[in-house]
Amino acid sequence: MPNPFKNRFAYSASAGSGKTFKLSVRYVALLFMGESPASILAATFTKKAAHEMHQRVFGYIKEIDHEKNRFFLEEVMALTGLEDQEIVAKKEAVQNLFLSQSGYIVTIDSFFASIVRSLSFEVGLEPTFEMGEGDYEEILERFVSKVATSGDMPHLMTLLRLLDDRHLGKALPLMQDFYKIDPILPTIEKTSLDIQAIEKTIEKKRLAMMEALEATGASNRAIKQFETPSIQEFFKKGLWGYEHLGEHSWFKKYASVSVELLFDELKALLLEWVESKDSLVITHLFRLYSDFKSATLFYAIEKNRLTFDDLALIAYILLTQHERAYVYFKLDSQFKHILIDEFQDTSILQFSLFAPLIEEICSGEGQNGFKSFFYVGDTKQSLYRFRGGIEELFDTVARAYDVTIEKMNTNYRSSKSVVEFVNSVFEGRMQGYLRQLTRPDAHEGFVELYRSDEVITKAVEVAQNLLAHGASVSDIAFLVFTNKDGLLIQNELLRHTIPSILQTSSSLNKLPKIVAIVAMVEYLFYDQILDAKALMLKYSVEHFDRSWYFHALEPFAVCHRLIELFGAFHHDPNVLKLLEFAALYRDIPTFLEEFYAASIEISSAVDYGAKIITVHGAKGLEFEHVILVDRSTKKPPDRSLLLYNYNEKLKIDNIYLRHANREHFDSLYALALERKKALAQKDHMNLLYVAMTRAVYSMSIIIKEKESVFDGLDMHPLGHFIIERQPQPTLEPQPNFLPISHYGRADKETQSKEDSSQIDFGNALHYTLEMLYGFKPEFLQRAMGAMINQFGNLLNLQKIEDIEARIKRLISNAPFLELIENNRYYKEIALVYNQRRMVIDLLIEESSGFVVVDYKSSNAHKEEHIAQVKAYLQAIKATTLQEARGAIFYLLAKEIVVERVELSNP
Predict the structure, then answer these.
(1) Stated pTM of the model
(2) What distance in Å separates the CA atoms of residue 889 and residue 821, rounded to the nearest whole number?
């Protein structure tokens, strides 16, 4: 019987067709085929999606024999070729393996982060780097300083003059764009062109043209077409749009052979002129970009904080500079299977990072065991071209790696009317659109269309009508195209006392209440009023009691006290998010710096009310009743300065500066411009497709009379306005809020200063051991440096020297060295056993089983330590089915004491 599992396979999905379900089937099937979770890389785009997939996979494994999962089981049977009894028999072993091994169901960014962390020392980063935004002003200062020290200031001055750019307002965004796509930029060779000589020739030919036209008796208005105050203005004239001058009605009688020849010569010279100017600009730009790239990377490394662009670029550098075997060794994983979700949003840069791993899988397939490559996506939902996402990659990769693509054409989400409406709108208008089917038990639903120039008012009226007919307010979602329109709808709903939730990509540091609390912290620390005065609802600044405050207080304590004092925030779950964030920092200046720089997810605890969300934000979500609202204002024009031309491998092979009318001179530029326009139209259709496929039961579309985003679509209402579902209670829930005093932190009043100091010392000791590249003296100083960066403000010099001395004794301790010699070992191994989360300091793999090593800085609670290690041993033995023994290494002030731990035989 042939193997039904296709090693190179992809699903071309549609909205609501169950592509994530298919990804889960593939992952679970690999486990039941005997593959290890550590050998499977499953990558998606958001933390939420990765978490949901992990939960879904575990749920399917755990309950694969339940009747409710029969369809899933049959899919796994079809993929593996196994019978249901065989799969059920393997369930417990697969479940234990999934729980005991470190798997890679991750976001794409977190996978790249794991690569960078494992190789961080190669680029001078600490493995504890954080993700966050950089300081734009400081990067700019470093860039200018780099330009000055590298001798590139003349290039900067020339570039600013050529771009008419006084404050780097044009040049810097271009370099920031280059930074996002660095690996796919073309190589630019230095050019030396005499633009002045070209301009002189153009002027000579221009005057010759005027003389030739005058000689033929051409009218003054025709001759004046060749008058110009500058070559820039001359280049912009509309007459260059004609292939032959005689096609223009003013020149029809006078376009002699000599006149046409001069016209052709002028067009060729103007093209040469604009290409020369562009080449000069691009050459200077790339020269300066090298300085910008260096300044940005050095800033990120020095601050130990990376943006997502930094992360992708550093990961690319590391992957291309090192052998794959070395990267696998550092990752402690050898991926045999790669599964990628939402592939249509993968950027060329992201794929270039995956490419070496995929090539190894595809090139070694059949030679080095069972390997596979799988991806799933919907090119109709590709929305992130502005971030580098290119839907064309879906088919390009399939051709490059001989991937079989299967289409999915059943919508399991939406009602019949919604699906039929979407088919009627996009069939024939979107290239490659496959008509969608509905599930057999789908509701009828309905689609309503409303035309009004007062789109915000009309949208709220539609919501009121839905509510009047029994819809639940929490089942209604307003989909908007701009954040501004979302705010306008929220204000209008507020006027009508309809509860709402504005779901944006906003961060905690954008919420007024939260920013007000932090502004008060800033006011207290720096004694500056700033914006904090807005918080004084009960006090004036002059009468505000600050007697409780002193600079040594931790950020958590200050924020907590302010919340208690002003008493206006107890029912806001984002206050808990702030306290959670504040608890990460020991001093106020660092807290303030990190708060304003970080992107901190806002709380999703509040879920009562109509949702207001942008179409981009709604991608991947579904709502019972969707009100899709036209833009209240016209979309701004595209003002980008550069135009990129991609080759068949989707790498950039040419960069143009955009000039009005350049397409009249340059056929390659004209093709690139037409392609950009076509892609912009495709992106617009994708956006509308995403918007129209979020509805489960009903969709109401609010359309402007003029300049609508829906112009050109043939839309008609479908179904009948009936709310079939039973509404949920519309009374807003009133949660019972309890005043929380310590928010989960240790009760400081029950801890002495000595206890706290010992905890800090123990944490620092463990961290240093974790940071050791290997258990050899040459790696100790680097680990100590990492520890000092993390804990230096909590430890005095004596304690730092004590930690170094204890670790030196450990890495020269004969019993310890005997354990690790010629054996593989793993640090900080996290596992869950009997619903208890455990972290093992060091796990050593021997030929006969495992050794669990636990480090302690004190032997004051020896019995508890032994019990703890015995629990670890039970977990290891149960999940690996191998023998396990333990050793507690007490790193004491004067000596190393080893306590051996064994499980009693039953």
Answers:
(1) 0.72
(2) 16
